[in-house]
Design goal:
Blueprint: H1 2-21, H2 34-53, H3 55-59, H4 68-93, H5 99-107, H6 125-142, H7 151-179, H8 183-202, H9 214-219, H10 227-245, E1 255-257, E2 262-264, H11 270-280, H12 284-297, H13 299-313
Antiparallel strand pairs: 1-2
Helix pairs in contact: 2-4, 4-7, 6-7, 6-8, 6-10
The chain binds Phenylacetyl coenzyme A.
Phenylacetyl coenzyme A (FAQ) is lined by residues 42-43, 46-47, 50-51, 54, 81, 112, 114-115, 130, 134-135, 138, 141-142, 202-206, 211-214, 217, 223, 227, 277.
């Protein structure tokens, strides 16, 4: 009996390996190794949590947007982020995860969300800089995930990336408008760029030689590029955009390497990254407290909707 089960398991593993080797997709009903499933749940849950927590820094400006047009754009963007969280939780559910349980793990700080959302938004220029730099980094990281080996995750990423492109452009357009404005507005943009540049580089995760998950995730085709490769791609993409805007990136070592045509940049403060990821960034407590309140204060909605659905299916 055991021998038969073993043979079957090895056949399944072989089929899984061949699917990955041929760059085909793994789908929810397919057999997959437990470690592959766990890694996907970890990454997709962190990604979903980032989208949901990521509504807060910009959401803080919804009632203080400088015009009706800016308010409508920002509202649409923040709602998009909620939608991204929902697709991603749905993708995690196809792996057997439970959405309410994932939310509890976020609130109990047992699961992570992106470090970037633990910084405050001090002026409206931060809304533009989040669109330009943070959504820009998200696109750079997520476009390759459209080819991720797990079908539901890859397909969710296609729509997410299209929407992130709109987000990036609205941020750039807002900053362009401010840079054509008063000296005070230009100074606000520069100040926001100074505060968000380094945290945006940290979004790509620890350097490759300190990234415990990268090698296996790349072998499984979940990640397509390493953290450092994507970070470099982002810098190369963003430096010319900064020149168009007329802002300085706060890195005296930033320079084009003529031989590689890539930008060299200064050292990243990984101690700051570790502080933020371990829960001690400027806004970690505020973000989690607000997420907890949203869960608890709105529990009655979930209860009512669940009771209504149960009644109808009966
Ligand atoms: N922050 O071994 P690695 C967005 C953790 S969405 C916090 O390199 P991996 C849209 C990592 O989880 C932004 N933790 O890990 C938006 C691991 O911890 P664990 C989110 C981080 O998974 C815009 C440990 O460090 N995007 O911005 C971070 O291979 C505007 C070791 O790291 C995604 O989630 C970090 N920055 O690579 C919304 C994209 N980096 O679990 C609103 C999908 C690493 O072992 C407004 N995710 N860690 O305890 C990925 O591509 C990968 O998961 C990486 C990390 C690249 C983030």
């Amino acid at each position: 009996m055991t021998a038969v089960a073993d043979v079957r398991e090895s056949d399944l593993q072989e089929y899984f390996d061949a699917t990955i080797a041929h760059d085909r997709r793994i789908e929810p009903r397919d057999w997959m190794p437990e470690a592959y499933r766990k890694t996907l749940v970890r990454q997709i849950a962190q990604h979903a949590h980032s989208e949901i927590i990521g509504m807060q820094p910009e959401g803080d400006w919804l009632l203080a947007a400088p015009s009706l047009r800016r308010k409508a754009i920002l509202l649409a963007k923040v709602q998009d982020e909620a939608g991204h969280g929902m697709y991603l939780y749905a993708a995690a559910e196809t792996l057997g995860a439970d959405r309410a349980d994932l939310t509890d793990k976020l609130i109990e700080r047992k699961q992570k969300y992106s470090s970037i959302f633990n910084y405050p938004t001090l002026t409206y220029a931060d809304v533009g800089v989040i669109g330009w730099l943070v959504d820009g980094a998200a696109i750079c990281n997520q476009v390759p995930l459209c080819r991720s080996s797990y079908g539901p995750y890859a397909r969710a990423m296609i729509r997410v990336c299209k929407e992130e492109s709109f987000h990036q452009r609205q941020g750039f357009e807002l900053l362009m408008t401010m840079m054509r404005g008063t000296e005070g507005q230009q100074a606000m943009v520069q100040d926001a760029v100074d505060r968000w540049w380094w945290p945006s580089l940290m979004m790509f995760g620890p350097p490759d030689d300190d990234s415990p998950n990268s090698a296996q995730s790349m072998a499984w085709g979940i990640k397509r590029h390493s953290n450092d490769e994507l970070r470099q791609r982002y810098v190369d993409m963003t430096v010319p955009q900064a020149a168009v805007l007329g802002v300085q990136l706060p890195d005296p070592e930033l320079a084009l390497d003529e031989s590689t045509r890539r930008y060299r940049f200064g050292p990243i403060d990984w101690s700051e990254f570790k502080q933020v990821v371990s829960g001690h960034g400027p806004c970690n407590d505020e973000r989690i407290t607000r997420r907890r309140a949203a869960r608890d204060d709105n529990a009655w909605v979930l209860e009512a909707a669940t009771a209504y659905a149960a009644k109808h299916s009966a």
